[in-house]
Amino acid sequence: MAVLFVAVLVLLLLVLCLSSALLLRWNEVRFSKKKGLPPGTMGWPIFGETTEFLKQGPNFMKNQRARYGSFFKSHILGCPTVVSMDPDVNRYILMNEGKGLVPGYPQSMLDILGKCNIAAVHGSTHKYMRGALLSLISPTMIRHHLLPTIDHFIRTHLCNWDSQIIDIQLKTKEMALLSSLKQIVGPESGSISGAFMPEFFKLVLGTLSLPIDVPGTSYRRGFQARKSIVSILRQLIVKRKESKESHLDMLGYLMNTEESNRYKLSDDEIIDQVITILYSGYETVSTTSMMAIKYLHDHPKVLQQLREEHLAIRARKKPEDPLDMDDLKSMRFTRAVIFETSRLATIVNGVLRKTTQEMEINGELLLFKCNVNFRFYLLFW
Ligand code: HEM
């Protein structure tokens, strides 16, 4: 009986191995028939090489480059993709935006961030949304609202760090999210942040997943989290409309229906813009700030010089005085530290573009005809 059981098991394993190999081979052959594609592997049907990509991170790209060169094909995050780590091709593609290439972020990201978010819209709608977002960070807004709010938030956030062991990664993540939330909904951030934060973390995870909508997947959890976040924001918008009070925060500015606001957005568009701001400023700012702290810890002389610059500014002010624009402009050394941190800790390694028509990428450099529905992942390493 035991022998029969082992034999069946071995047979099943053999069938499984054989069918896996056939499935992988079929997927490779399917894509190799398409003309003009660079070398590379496409992994499994539907899943492609997403699991390896998410598990290995940058090493996945480095290994593929070692095998296939700086221009190779793959299948990640639900879409056939051509990865380019070639600076000339990347420059060419970025310089020729609009000529058949548009932002090509994964479907999971577009679904979860909303159909009006800036990465999901093209052409004149993209221009309009961009204008609406840029109006929130005009020099006047920075001087009168953004800077004082950040100053006040950071003082409160840092006030009890003394004589404690701090998890810097956790603290910078909280800092990035809570400070953006404060900019967006002002004092109301206090009452919503408790419910908002865990949902937002799920939303972030969901944007980098395969768009498979079944219970237990990151995509499903991210999508549910989006629903909760939309509901919190919608309630806030309704409350503000009923109260008719004006608010000097980003949501108040986006909801302003007066002539002075050039950009009139619907409630759905406002909600997607708010999610875009929170999402774009979260991982980028938290990781950069965390790395700045690490680099300053590793370079005590730089930390000392930075401290001297800030102590000199504080010496001219009373302890409760906030930093103003002139103080900010005078921070030459601090600016150099920020630039150097951004250079060393490249948070955004690459961008994604999608072809809207069959095209030849940089004819002189590479004669490459790309099928519609292929996506480019330009990496800057
Ligand atoms: C260290 C910080 C940051 C880095 C490294 C960074 C990097 C980038 C990069 C590389 C892009 C271009 C993406 C593409 O072309 O596909 C981009 C776009 C964008 N970023 Fe950031 N970002 C940072 C902080 C922020 C913050 C704090 C916000 C908002 C609060 C923000 C909002 C945006 C928006 C809205 C776009 C889209 C612009 C458009 O499509 O016209 N970013 N960012």
From TrEMBL:
Fetch the InterPro entries from UniProt.
Cyt_P450, Cyt_P450_E_grp-I, Cyt_P450_sf
Any one biological process term the GO annotation gives: brassinosteroid homeostasis
Q: Enumerate the UniProt keywords alphabetically.
A: Iron, Metal-binding, Signal
Q: Which organism is it from?
A: Linum tenue
- Which residues are the signal sequence here? 1-21
Keyword flag Kinase: no
Q: Which family does it belong to?
A: Belongs to the cytochrome P450 family.
**Record-level Gene Ontology MF annotations:** heme binding; iron ion binding; monooxygenase activity; oxidoreductase activity, acting on paired donors, with incorporation or reduction of molecular oxygen
Q: What is this protein called?
A: Uncharacterized protein
- Highest taxon of the lineage: Eukaryota
